[in-house]
Please model this.
Amino acid sequence: EAQVTQNPRYLITVTGKKLTVTCSQNMNHEYMSWYRQDPGLGLRQIYYSMNVEVTDKGDVPEGYKVSRKEKRNFPLILESPSPNQTSLYFCASSPGTVNTDTQYFGPGTRLTVL
Amino acid sequence: DAKTTQPNSMESNEEEPVHLPCNHSTISGTDYIHWYRQLPSQGPEYVIHGLTSNVNNRMASLAIAEDRKSSTLILHRATLRDAAVYYCILRSTNNAGNMLTFGGGTRLMVKP
Model:
């Protein structure tokens, strides 16, 4: 089944403790991205990747890192999480970046930073 | 990407058709109109997209006004599983980051 998977689905952590949220897609998509969703602010893009070893900042990249060493994986790294990074995170992928491409979203990771 | 305007919420009865409107008066000629929806506790999922002509797929129909300044997503027979937030999104050819700009969307409530 074609899908985007994320792990973990739920995570409670403390300020400053490094964490990684994994994202994997099995559709051989070139493009992947991370969004966060907050009440009243909607979904906002954090980082994106056009292909392996090509990443760039989205609208809200502060406090996050990403890497794209393999086509299928795009982990989101929080080196020193803070409470304002408490949010619902979604990974997405698409075949490319033309404006007819469909984006496929993962199930979400709910992160709480205490 | 150009801005879209949608009602905050709508209500429908089960098994009745639902028409979800979207205004996009500043749409440019090459912008595609996409619809996504987000069911409770899930990630957004693609519904349909179009440029000028009306479009149909297994999930819904998309009716696009002749001047393209508005569109309507049509669910032919709403089910309880269609209760979700529906987002109307314009995709331009010049979109650094290929970002989807999600507005507030329309929360659809389906009554049994």
Q: What stands out?
A: Chain B touches chain A at residues 30-32, 36, 41-46, 49, 91-93, 95, 97-100, 102-105 (CB under 8 Å). The beta strands of chain B are 9-13, 18-23, 32-38, 45-50, 55-56, 61-64, 70-75, 84-91, 106-111.
